[in-house]
Amino acid sequence: MLLEVAYQSVRKRVAAVLIKLNNQSDLADKDESITVARKDLSGLVGTTTESLNRTIVDFKNVKG
Question: How many folded domains does the chain comprise?
Answer without folding.
Answer: 1
